[in-house]
Amino acid sequence: MSDSEPDLELLELLRQHIAGKPQVAAEPDTGVLESAEYVYNNSIDVALDMRSCKNAARAIYSQMQTKSYSPATWAAHELHPHPSKGDKPEDVVAFIFTMDLLNFCFWSERGEEERFSIEYKGRRWTGYWSLVAALQRALEEGIPITDPHFWQNEEELTLSTLKHVFRSATSEEMPLLAARLSCLREAGQILYEKFSCHPLHLVTSSNNSAARLVNTLASNFSCFNDTHSPPSFPRKKPIRLLKRAQILVADLWACFEGQGPYGKFYDIDKITMFADYRIPQMLNQLGCIQYSPPLETAVQLKRDIPSGSNWEIQLRACSIWCVELIRREILRENPGARVNAILIDFFLYDTIKEMENEGRERAPHHRTRSIWY
């Protein structure tokens, strides 16, 4: 055999060796935390105060312990669906998918009595709870608002229908109704084409991986693909924030308390906080996040901050990194603590809403209109 001829026996041995050791697929990762750290390391308008982050970690964990904060807290709310309330698991999954498909942009410049609100069960609901209340009300009225077949029917589900579903107790309409209709249309089509027209099949396709389910949502549904390439952060990979994709997974996990085919995710701790406008506000109030003078002025004066702009990406990404540092500090001081970014996010959101209701907010949230949050 000459030097130029291949050694067929050696090649066969190599084939057998490779065949005998199947390639192990890399564990899925959302890329959100990596994106957040990258933005934080290159941010010029948002900074973290490490001492305040440590103090916040101690206070947050203490209050979470006092309130017995856990995934069960989610299901305890009267508006959230749950099997213990007689809801079928498949209906709960459909409700959560619909809820987080439309879970964005509820803020208003009007006062509490004039802002968009939903009348349901003898009281008015605003913000995120107005969405949940409207969905529950629609189902009680016989409107199949959580059915992907309904979403695809352009004769039955029109903008007028959606206006009826989200009819307000005030003169202010729900923001971005046309965008919400587009989200329903797209999701109905994708579920029909790829997931047998039901979110159940989408969820089970993840094989109990939270990160895989987030990535599946982002790659298949443009309305979940919360990724950005702002000019001040030039790099080949877009910045991944994926708020609604992540919160959908988190809501499933919380609702089913980390159990069963729809709530058990072996990598749930890969989910970060959900970068919106409320958590940055709370972190700023805690002194954990600080703004440059121009950004501080824009926030205080309630000026519009465009979606995907440098300021907005810094606000959201640095908040993700801030909560990650708080989580690490809690675990450093309390080894074995059952806490993750999801529970910290839920706790901070509930806290800032309580402060808003009691008039104890010291600073406004930033103003951005978008479908991402």
TrEMBL record:
<comment type="similarity">
    <text>Belongs to the QNG1 protein family.</text>
</comment>
<dbReference type="InterPro" id="IPR019438">
    <property type="entry name" value="Q_salvage"/>
</dbReference>
<protein>
    <recommendedName>
        <fullName>Queuosine 5'-phosphate N-glycosylase/hydrolase</fullName>
        <ecNumber>3.2.2.-</ecNumber>
    </recommendedName>
</protein>
<comment type="function">
    <text>Catalyzes the hydrolysis of queuosine 5'-phosphate, releasing the nucleobase queuine (q). Is required for salvage of queuine from exogenous queuosine (Q) that is imported and then converted to queuosine 5'-phosphate intracellularly.</text>
</comment>
<dbReference type="Pfam" id="PF10343">
    <property type="entry name" value="Q_salvage"/>
</dbReference>
<keyword id="KW-0378">Hydrolase</keyword>
